Amino acid sequence: MVAGGVVLWNQYGDRISDFFSVEETDYEGTGNGVEVNFTILPGDTGTTIGQRLADEGVVLTSEAFVKSILAMPEEPVFMPGTYKLQEEMSAAAALVALTDEENRVENAVTIPEGTIMRDVFTLVEGATGITVAELESAAADPQSFGLPEEAQTLEGFLFPATYAFSPDDTAESILTTMVDRTYESLNAHGVPEDQVWDVIRLASLIEKEARFEEDFYKVSRVFLNRIDENMPLQSDATVTYGTGAYDRASTTDTERGDASNEYNTYAHSGMVIRPISNPGDLAIDAAMHPADGPWLYFVTVNLETGETVFSETYDQHLAAVDEWLKWLEENPDYE
């Protein structure tokens, strides 16, 4: 469960049984000397932390990290924030580092790609002491930061990066730094001023739907192809954003049919009404430079590895969905 910003191992309970049957290798030692700033997000579980550690080259496998948690005499407590780690750490060493407040970077915060505004504010508060309420107040007028007139919040324009703030920084200066960094990226990727709103919305969606670099450009093409064909985007990520249940990957029939959710791209055609995350360089580039291809569908067929199948026809897509359903059946405790 999550209580007061603290993430407990209990949150993913029964899933631990799956890992006892998985053979994995592990790095040895405390790292190779290459520093990595790693962020624990509000709502993270041991599983999600382990997966990102593996993705960022800190640990070799997420399974090794989970087993290190299980080997501890007491349940570890993970506090949201940015921590100093290294590449190629043993899972046990990474776990020790993440539960040691001495490794927490003061006045520095790393915002991972795809983090939503609410969680950005929580991370900034943890690093600087500037409260979420102060940040929300400073962000109340998005246009004062130079955002398009359509923007109702700073969502989409808080660039994911590592920031080192000084004690003199204010809520306004911190948010200005993040927004300015987003515009630096937009300019670097050649986004015309009159396309900023469209590109940020698409990039925010790509960021939530894609995992591997090649897939970012293919996901971009799928969404643009569907708009060209006057097909709804049908993204679960937009639905969950509109419900406020940001951390879920799946949706219910009732949620997908709820037209009162203005972010629901099953019920509403065209591009999602507003950004649903804060995208990074790769997603922005993919929004501007989609891959060439006829795909109209994609589905992640393995939620653990992120393997995704792209399809041109509905029959091909149904076959991929069957593959996904089979994976879910074989992994009933996956969340």
Automatic annotation (TrEMBL):
Keywords: Cell membrane, Cell wall biogenesis/degradation, Lyase, Membrane, Transmembrane, Transmembrane helix. The keyword Cell membrane applies. GO terms for molecular function: lytic endotransglycosylase activity. This is Endolytic murein transglycosylase. Belongs to the transglycosylase MltG family. Functions as a peptidoglycan terminase that cleaves nascent peptidoglycan strands endolytically to terminate their elongation. It comes from Gulosibacter chungangensis. It catalyses: a peptidoglycan chain = a peptidoglycan chain with N-acetyl-1,6-anhydromuramyl-[peptide] at the reducing end + a peptidoglycan chain with N-acetylglucosamine at the non-reducing end. GO terms for cellular component: plasma membrane. GO terms for biological process: cell wall organization; peptidoglycan biosynthetic process. InterPro entries: MLTG-like. It comes from the Bacteria.
